[in-house]
Amino acid sequence: MRTVATLFAFAASALALQVTQPTNATGWSTSGSNTVAWNAVSTDPSNFTVVLVNMNEFPNYSQILDALVVTSLDKQSVNPPSSGWPTGHGFQINLVADNEHLSTILAQSEQFSFIAPSGSSSGVSSTPASSASGATMTVPASSQ
Ligand SMILES: *[C@@H]1O[C@H](CO)[C@@H](O)[C@H](O)[C@H]1NC(C)=O
Ligand SMILES: *[C@@H]1O[C@H](CO)[C@@H](O)[C@H](O)[C@H]1NC(C)=O
Ligand SMILES: *[C@@H]1O[C@H](CO)[C@@H](O)[C@H](O)[C@H]1NC(C)=O
């Protein structure tokens, strides 16, 4: 007797944390809270910190949105920073280990834009996809 069960044995551990929301296609709203969603496997850390970055801006934008997010929740609603949501293109969500290790990136979203919710300018222009791999983020000292 043959079995194909072994085919599935290796698949389970192959993928780690992956950001499924926001995507380049959906973007985020400049109004109200936005949702971060992810897929995880049992070997991922039990919590992480959500950081909004834009490596295409000078200086690079970096803002912690939520810390100690519980991995098993699969998604989390995040509120705007005290200064409000930024505008523009080329933003990414980084899931990082914790507040102290913002450059330890566990997963990264696609580049996306902030989009105004109602009828204002829909100027979604193209953003060059610059590779940010291996970059070390410099974050202005904040309260954390
Ligand atoms: C957060 O995750 C880290 C790494 O998995 C773990 O050591 C720590 O205990 C967790 N903290 C909380 C509050 O769950
Ligand atoms: C912004 O990020 C890019 C890409 O990682 C990097 O080359 C550049 O030096 C950064 N600029 C600043 C001001 O941090
Ligand atoms: C994101 O979408 C815009 C169009 O909305 C496109 O021009 C851009 O190349 C996309 N970026 C990535 C990284 O896919």
UniProtKB/TrEMBL annotation:
Keywords: Signal. Residues 1-16 form the signal peptide. The keyword Signal applies. Pfam families: Kre9_KNH (PF10342). Residues 117-144 are annotated as: Disordered. InterPro entries: GPI-anchor_Adhesion_Reg, Kre9/Knh1-like_N. Residues 21-113 form the Yeast cell wall synthesis Kre9/Knh1-like N-terminal domain. Residues 117-136 have a biased composition (Low complexity). This is Yeast cell wall synthesis Kre9/Knh1-like N-terminal domain-containing protein. It comes from Phlebiopsis gigantea (strain 11061_1 CR5-6) (White-rot fungus).
